[in-house]
Amino acid sequence: MTFPPTATIIRIFRGLAIAEAFSWAALLVGMVLKWVTRTTELGVEIAGPIHGAFFIGYAVAALSLWAKLRWPFRVALLSGLSAVFPFATIWFERWAGRRGHLNAASAAAGAQEFAGAQEKEVTRDDDLSARV
Q1: Within 13 Å and on the Cβ side, how many CA atoms surround 10?
Q2: Is 21 exposed, middle or buried (0-12, 13-18, 19+ CB in 10 A)?
Q3: What is the pLDDT of residues 50-79, one digit of tens each?
Q4: 29 and 41 in contact (C-beta within 8 Å)?
Q5: What does residue 100 show for φ and ψ, rounded to 5 degrees?
Q6: Cα–Cα–Cα angle for 27, 30, 33, nearest 5°?
Q7: What is the pTM of this model?
Q8: Which of 16, 17, 30, 70 is an S-S bond match for 89, by CB 3.0 to 4.6 Å?
């Protein structure tokens, strides 16, 4: 499977983080209109599917970045948990950006580190097979 360029995934992720938060707000307003004021269900009928689409898009983008940028498990877990709480995706996106988890440069460094580790493992396997 081929990923789009890292910078593109990061841009999409940032946009989806904001869109997911605003769709959460719209869904909350719709739920208030439906359950508290009992005036209309239209807010939930419109905002529900929109929020669902942004939620799924955010999750796919987060999983893609986890794979592409080689996020530690803790960062990936926080990205997933942030989608559950209203407006937390914006907090996570800002936090991850400040910590360098949304850097295309860190992806290149992580890929080089991963390639180096694989190369060492292959060399170690060759040494073991040479001994046998």
Answers
A1: 17
A2: buried
A3: 999 999 999 999 999 999 999 999 999 999
A4: no
A5: 85, 15
A6: 155
A7: 0.78
A8: 17
